[in-house]
Design a protein that fits this description.
Distance between the termini: 21 Å
Radius of gyration: 21 Å
Length: 426
């Protein structure tokens, strides 16, 4: 039997990983700006400790997914040093994605149980409220304000291209993508709690205020990704409503509650202003990128297809780590460049070559398929939590840009939470 003390410590380590994910940007912008670069990998020591402790305690051992990705990663390291960029630091930085973080999906799935997942969900509700308040302050504050300072205390601000004179803000994160992923996670939890208010024992008042915060965040974040993620979560909820009449009633109740909450928000001027800015951003971006087809097909399906058919990639790859921003900084001195590809599949194949890159992609796809099957089967046991979490986790695990540490963190966390939310005796 695993000692309860060891299990408690491992759970604390996962909670530390979670809070560092949420507040890493705050550390880099406001609290320790002078250490902004080393704080980029602040979760790596936690990942190392979690892996070491879970293996030495006998709680977890690498499964076939992990063993295969380890073998591919080591081979990719050798190729990077002898046939690729040849920079050991860049290679090690790229290696940490698959060696340190990817296995945590399974560690979290074993260490946490369903109650731990629900407990984290309730914390996310509180964080959603606080995050939206912060986002509103950032939205209406000038870029010179302290609350809008960029990485390393950059006084030019952390805002990114928006519309109508307003900027897309990052909340507590280093960049706007972290905020979008946070609200994606929050949406999955919020919709689940609406489906299962009684058994999850969540406060109705807390859930109502968190839902208001999520709705307000759509225009305040000026992020189409937030809206897109909420739509996906709603679709996941509708899919399962046909399997159970009780779920259908809950879906209708949640929809009615959301409608009235939206009407209430629309009475406030701050929401009207943000909604106008969001629509401006939505319209201008759609004109530039070709509407829904440009956003979905080009970014999602097009990125996948383009990565596989790109004949400019070297067969053995240009070297693991070269496609990351940190790798670009080490190789060229400029972290704003994408030396290989902005898309994740393009980065993986461009770094590792077609064969090794496709193996990594297939491993991530295999994890998604397994999670999909387990989550779908759990619905039969009246456990909709894995399915709703999958609405956020599916895309970010399959082809989320893991070269960016915040995206990587959310991908690993949600994968582990889905595994953990599946009842072990099922």
């Amino acid at each position: 039997m695993i000692e309860q003390r060891v299990l408690r410590n491992l759970k604390r380590g996962i909670w530390l990983y979670f809070f560092l994910l949420i507040f890493e940007g705050a550390l880099r912008k406001w609290i320790l700006p002078g250490l902004s670069e080393p704080l980029l990998i602040v979760r790596d020591p936690v990942a190392i400790w979690l892996l070491y402790k879970s293996i030495t305690s006998g709680l977890w051992k690498p499964n076939s997914y992990v063993l295969l990705i380890y073998a591919v990663s080591v081979l990719a390291l050798v190729l990077a040093l002898f046939l690729g960029h040849g920079n050991i630091l860049v290679a090690i930085y790229g290696l940490r994605i698959t060696i340190l973080h990817f296995p945590l999906i399974f560690v979290i799935g074993i260490v946490f149980n369903r109650e731990d997942v629900l407990r984290m969900g309730k914390v996310v509700l509180w964080l959603c409220i606080g995050m939206t308040i912060l986002v509103a302050i950032q939205f209406y504050s000038p870029q010179s304000a302290w609350v809008n300072r960029g990485i390393g205390g950059d006084i030019e601000g952390s805002g990114f291209g928006g519309a109508a004179g307003f900027f897309r803000v990052p909340g507590t994160f280093s960049f706007t993508n972290g905020l979008a992923f946070f609200y994606g996670l929050a949406a999955a939890y919020i919709f689940y709690f609406w489906l299962d208010i009684k058994t999850s024992q969540v406060s109705i008042l807390l859930l109502l205020v968190a839902t208001l915060a999520l709705l307000a965040a759509i225009p305040l974040s000026i992020s189409r990704t937030v809206l897109f993620q909420i739509v996906i979560t709603i679709l996941f909820m509708l899919v399962i409503s046909g399997r159970n009449p009780k779920i259908l009633i809950r879906v209708l109740s949640a929809s009615i509650a959301g409608f009235f909450l939206f009407l209430m928000l629309n009475n406030f001027s701050f929401f009207k202003t943000a909604s106008y800015v969001f629509m401006e951003r939505f319209t201008s971006a759609n004109d530039t990128e070709g509407g829904l087809e440009g956003v979905f097909v080009d970014r999602f399906l097009g990125g996948m297809y383009g990565a596989i058919t790109n004949d400019k990639f070297q067969f053995w790859g240009e070297g693991i780590g070269k496609g990351t921003n940190a790798g670009a900084k080490l190789l060229t001195g400029d972290s704003s460049k994408f030396l290989i590809s902005e898309g994740e599949w393009g980065r993986v194949i461009g770094e590792m070559g077609f064969i090794l890159g496709m193996i990594v992609i297939l491993i991530r796809g295999g994890v998604v398929i397994q999670l999909f099957r387990k989550a779908w089967n759990s619905i039969s046991f009246d456990n909709t939590l894995p399915w709703m979490l999958l609405s956020f986790g599916m895309i970010i695990i399959l082809q989320g840009p893991w070269a960016q540490p915040t995206t990587l963190g959310f991908g690993i966390l949600i994968g582990g939470l889905i595994y953990a939310s599946i009842e072990k005796d099922n």
